[in-house]
From TrEMBL:
InterPro entries: Acetyltransf_17, Acetyltransferase_Eis, Acyl_CoA_acyltransferase, Eis_dom, GNAT_dom, NAcTrfase_Eis, SCP2_sterol-bd_dom_sf. It comes from Kineococcus rhizosphaerae. Homohexamer; trimer of dimers. GO terms for biological process: aminoglycoside antibiotic catabolic process. Pfam families: Acetyltransf_17, Acetyltransf_9, SCP2_2. This is Putative acetyltransferase. The active site is at Y132 (proton donor), F424 (proton acceptor). Acetyl-CoA binds at A91, T92, V93, R99, R100, G101, L102, L103, T104. Signal peptide: none annotated. Belongs to the acetyltransferase Eis family.
Amino acid sequence: MAPELRVTQVDPQDREALRAWSVPSRAAFLQSAPTEEDLQERRRAVTGHRLSAVHDTVAGEDRVVATLRTFDSELTVPGSGPVSVDAVSTATVLPTHRRRGLLTRMLTADLERARHDGHAFAALIAAEAPIYGRFGFGAATRATSLVLDDARVRFRPDAPAASGSLEFVPDGRTAELAAVHDRTRRHRPGGLLRDEAWWQAAARRGPGRWLGHSGHVVLHRDERGVADGYVAYDVTDESVGRVPDGTAHVRDLAAATPAAYRALWEFVTSIDLVRTTRAGNRPVDELLPHLLVDPRAVQTGPVDDLLWLRALDVPGALAARRYLGCGTLVLKVVDPLGLAEATVRLHVAAQRCGADGWVCAEVTTTDAEPDVVLPVGELSSLLLGGTSAVALHAAGRIDCSAAAAYTLTTLMATPEQPWCPTWF
Ligand SMILES: CC(=O)SCCNC(=O)CCNC(=O)[C@H](O)C(C)(C)COP(=O)(O)OP(=O)(O)OC[C@H]1O[C@@H](n2cnc3c(N)ncnc32)[C@H](O)[C@@H]1OP(=O)(O)O
């Protein structure tokens, strides 16, 4: 980085500093300069976050030319619920300053800090797939889209029955939605904490927001009146003449019980004047097709990566999750940034089994000959159970025998595919 460039930390409560910080972050994401309202909202959203800025002198003035935002969050890992994670976002560089190493400088400094602060993981959503592998991140969750032909959606007689009740949620009333999400995000690997600021931002409307301009939220309650699911959806109308042709766009659907899951999908696919239901960012192993008489009423795809993970402490990351298989492997983890290099023995024995079937691993550093040599990004993409070690081995990305790749695949496997429904 050129000597005239300086890195500072920005206080979100400093109005002018936040305005200067917001210029590159909006320009790089192809948005216009921030309005007063944008700034107010941004301040609420980033309070308590770490904001880095790179400054340059441009036409004699000090200007922010690059940004990075990180904050402490929680990530659900297989079998053991949420663990702390360094969440990385708003990595932006003005187009006039790209490819001069500014992202590299900000991100490596933050990862070193996060490692020092005791985080075993960092996580981000990558704008483009080629950017973050060099920093030791690997794609750890995938997501897909669904298109439903509503007229063909009929539930099988053996599907869980819909019980309980449904109600529209008035704008801004997010407390019960937050409680439902908090219940559901703890079960599937890849779930992330949504804090109060996330829900405050969700309550506001506009283009690109959770609910867009004209979305609705419907809450499901069980028979005792406890909220256990919701669907947030937007509707567009493509009707021509008197032939109704509306589309419901599911923005978010969370269900803590099978009854809520069925009731919410049944509701959103049976709205009058709506013929098609679309849903984005859904898990790749969505249950819905299995519940239908005609599973082809649901068209699935394309599938894309979503959450990228980076182990910062290899023994800590392996010990944080639980396992369903058993076996022993020595893993040598290579790290391009030198932050998490380690050789560890991962031992999962059946007798360490918990009541729910998940097993704690014994993870010890060792100087034994490794069974598997792998880059930290590849390890990170295996950790939530969404990537096959057999596939990485076949692609030449991890160095081991076919038998060791198989053992690693069975050790890392999870009953449900990891999924992250939360953008940040
Ligand atoms: C977590 C998030 O916030 S994701 C959002 C990322 N931001 C965006 O997509 C907004 C638009 N893009 C940008 O602001 C910038 O181009 C950034 C942030 C992606 C990259 O910033 P830069 O300062 O240019 O990156 P930097 O110079 O440190 O590049 C490091 C390396 O990554 C490579 N790289 C950087 N961006 C990309 C990319 N989009 N595609 C492929 N390679 C890339 C560079 O070529 C360089 O490679 P090298 O070391 O082999 O020379």
